[in-house]
Amino acid sequence: MADLLLYDIIESPTHPDLSRICDRLGLERLVFNSQRKAIAQLKRRPPDRVVADFFYGYGNNYAGANVSNLDVLLHSLRRFAPQARVIVLADRDEIAHVPRLADLFELHAIVRLPADHTELEAALA
Asked: What is the DSSP letter of 68?
């Protein structure tokens, strides 16, 4: 059986290192430092799992149309990888806003940072 493919989108210094968990679970891991790069790869290699950092759209950058930094990525996943399980990472200041995103998109798991490896492994399994 082929490994499941994980997109690990690292946009925060608090993003945990998932390499050991991926090795244990047999996940192939592609690391991206921006969502734009991950979205560009969607047509070629759609992921089975996605882990991404959540940042609420406080400012005018989102103009009320988007809840967070993840909206565009999640719209793209609906089209190119609808089966992908999305794991959202949020710190204590941001986690209260994640339910607004969950109202719009299916999220497999929401993990509060800093997270222990047991919680991350359970979300990825």
From this structure: B
Predicted model pTM: 0.90
CATH code, domain carrying 53: 3.40.50.2300
Domain containing 86 equals 4-124
15-25 CB burial, b ≥16 within 10 A, e <16: bbebeebbeeb
- CA separation, residue 86 to residues 52, 60, 77 (Å): 8, 26, 9
Give tens-digit pLDDT for 6-48: 999 999 999 999 999 999 999 999 999 999 999 999 999 999 9
Which are the contacts of 48, defined by CB distance < 8 A and separation ≥ 6? 4, 5, 6, 81, 83, 84, 85
